[in-house]
Amino acid sequence: MDPEGIKYFNQRYRLFSRYDEGIELDHEAWYSVTPEAIAKHIANKTAELLPHGAVILDGFCGAGGNTIQFALSLKERQLSPYIFAIDIDPKKIEIARNNARVYGVDHLIEFILGDYFVISPLIHVDLVFLSPPWGGPGYINEGVYDIQSLKPLGGKELISFTMKNVSKNIVLCLPRNINPYQIVQLTEKYERVEIEYNCMNRKVKTITCYFNKMIEEKWPIKEVYTEEDILW
Ligand code: MGP
Ligand code: SAH
């Protein structure tokens, strides 16, 4: 195994606590899967805002790190959800289905092999979750990550497509080295976004953005930030 591979393998129980029970990952999944604690946090936080029978779409499901936690969290709350998980890669659909089986939630998820941009407008959803490819593990070498480096479409196109054709209630996973002002620029007039830094062992791992109805309302908005305030 190459050193980069060893780095991810050493974190295997952080990715999936039930790793030893038959979890499968492929090359891309090793470096893209959302660590379980972060995926669980996102799922628990959004579950509080979703109605009974909510429809959730994971547009880029990968190995299932997030999909599985959505299923577990909504099941725990007896919300009888409908969960759709799309990936364009047949291998990912195979391993995500296997991993969901390990966690006992495969029967709660409809896995769809296909292109997010083709399938998503066909589903009426309450929440769309997006964790697209960032362009490989070298994303961190960009210095400040440009939101337009997201694949297969830049962040602006991804979010405008989703808001127009799928839902405005979006949760988006982004690299920790992104310029937050680029996130704010994704919103249109009267739209809002909550930007959350997800830390593990005192280190920021990822950034999660909650748009519109997915914003936790318990924190009153006290200040309006300008571009100069949040540029670093
Ligand atoms: P990382 O920076 O590659 O790992 O990814 P780490 O362990 O923080 O590296 P270190 O050397 O700085 O310690 C951090 C997290 O980002 C991963 O656990 C994934 O959850 C997420 N991630 C990384 N990549 C390359 C992607 C990606 O392409 N897409 C998505 N959706 N998530 C990714
Ligand atoms: N959140 C996932 C990781 C997602 S990685 C987890 O925790 O496991 C990003 C995924 O997007 C990859 O599996 C890749 O195959 C998929 N992908 C890339 N382009 C896509 C497209 N157009 N439609 C659907 N999935 C796509």
Q: What does it look like?
A:
α8 links the parallel β4 and β5. α4 crosses α5. It contains 10 helices and 7 strands. It is α/β, with parallel strands linked by helices. The N and C termini lie far apart (37 Å). 7-methyl-guanosine-5'-triphosphate binds next to α3 and β7.
Give short descriptive properties of this protein.
single chain, 232 residues, alpha/beta, 10 helices, binds 7-methyl-guanosine-5'-triphosphate
Mean pLDDT, nearest integer?
A: 93
- Write down the Rg: 17 Å
**If helices are DSSP runs of H or I spanning 4 or more residues, what is the number of helices?**
10
Strand tally: 7
Give me a quick take on this structure.
This protein has 232 residues and is an alpha/beta fold. It is built from 10 helices and 7 strands.
Topology (SSEs and partners):
Layout: H1 3-9, H2 12-15, H3 27-32, H4 36-47, E1 55-58, H5 65-76, E2 82-87, H6 90-102, E3 109-113, H7 116-119, E4 127-130, H8 155-165, E5 170-175, H9 180-184, E6 193-200, E7 203-211, H10 227-230
Helix pairs in contact: 4-5
7-methyl-guanosine-5'-triphosphate binds next to helix 3 and strand 7.
